[in-house]
Design a protein that fits this description.
6-stranded mixed sheet; alpha/beta; homodimer
Chain lengths: ~290, ~290
Amino acid sequence: MKPIELTRQARPVTTTVDAINERGEIVPTPIAGEHPLTVYLDKRELVTLMTLGDAPEHLALGWLRNQRILGSIDAIAAVQVDWETDSVAITSRSLRDRGVSIWDLGADTPLSQGLDERMRHRTVTTGCGQGTVFGDLMDDIDALRLPAGPIITDTTLMAVMDQVRKMESIYKVAGAVHGCALLANTDPDPGPRMLRFVEDVGRHNAVDAIAGWMWLEGIDGTDKIFYTTGRLTSEMVIKCAQMGIAVLLSRSGLTGMGHAIAQKTGITLIGRCQGRHYLLFTGAQRFVRHGLER
Amino acid sequence: MKPIELTRQARPVTTTVDAINERGEIVPTPIAGEHPLTVYLDKRELVTLMTLGDAPEHLALGWLRNQRILGSIDAIAAVQVDWETDSVAITSRSLRDRGVSIWDLGADTPLSQGLDERMRHRTVTTGCGQGTVFGDLMDDIDALRLPAGPIITDTTLMAVMDQVRKMESIYKVAGAVHGCALLANTDPDPGPRMLRFVEDVGRHNAVDAIAGWMWLEGIDGTDKIFYTTGRLTSEMVIKCAQMGIAVLLSRSGLTGMGHAIAQKTGITLIGRCQGRHYLLFTGAQRFVRHGLER
């Protein structure tokens, strides 16, 4: 199979504007970029995402994946971002190789099976700020179960926190972004390894960009650790569960529904990770506490 | 005209779950609620919002307003939240008084003019985490201009910050929520007056809930101050501009597009409001700095 054609069209992540502080001084201040990115699949417009634009190809792929519009990356031939038109064109192998749009494949082909149905659900359940994946996904939560087993220790947790502290570059400079990280869990030696770190103006974008990268690289989530600076709402937990990631860490808190879904799917959810502190909320069977030097 | 029938179905804002801290101790921890709320307008399903559920009636109204699905609250007869079905049914006066659904009114009636068109735009431009109002709204930014004039002083700004600091109750208890406040700007005496404070798991929900409340109460935004704990992204600034609010304060930062829209519409945008510090980004013509005692 031919490789996927991929542009690499990252936008500059910050611009600097003048602000006036409380002393009346002019302060040049870096602020995070925000750009519309309209996603097309075989020329059909699907959505406009507002993004930092640092990983637009991965974002578009991950969005398609986490919305479950396409079940496999094998269906995709090209992902082409064009900031002149603020758009990303995703071309299916069907269109490229056979000249047949993915939308025109018979309903009985594996590729397009349920495509229209998923699109319909997407549009009616899409929310402002949340909810894009909510619709029929909640019905499928029962089918999602992450494998058990002790796969994270407090030593690893602290090592993860140390690593991500060093990584939050755009946030440190300009604020107004959330960061997500994917780490390989190789406790105790040599410790967790940062595979991917993405920041975006929306925490959902950051997790989608990681999902797209995992899809491209063929990386399985099962033995990985996911970290986010943002809150663990239902949508964040559902997306991670879909990606097969069993260990979620957040510097922030969680919501009742995030908690409930983590419990139901068997995810180990650790929130309020700050300094040496943390709160283990669910999935204790997967966590080993050695008790850290203080 | 008959008043609007309104339920008052707030959900409990927090629940308490057990967590295990770094010392292995069990810590009962309050977490914020998160509930799906599906919005129906004359029985047609529009969207599912994920919300704290503290002001669901106002949220649904404000969502309809800020999505510009309805241009006037006069079209609405009832807003009925039912948590048994996680839904809110909005009934038009047309349906209640004449038995004709708003969706079946002729395209030439003022009420339904452009309704389908707006719905179509909404669905294709709805994004994950952002973008619901983006579509044709950006085209209308040129038409939005907030009136000028010096309407906020640094003394008022500090008084606002003092007031909101005392108000962030759910955040203080459970985190994982954003707060938005609307204040009357009556500088210098008796100082700003808190009109409304709303917290929600999404900052877009919080601003929508304030928009819905303003609609219900007939409150104009022109002479008001809007405060949010969240970032000022494009969508937040657009919503405030639509509500006619010329002064936006945030404890957090802003994005490039938030900045650009504030500049274009003439909004006074002040970010990084923390303690005695702030950064005035746009709309300096509306800001008077007395220079504060330090």
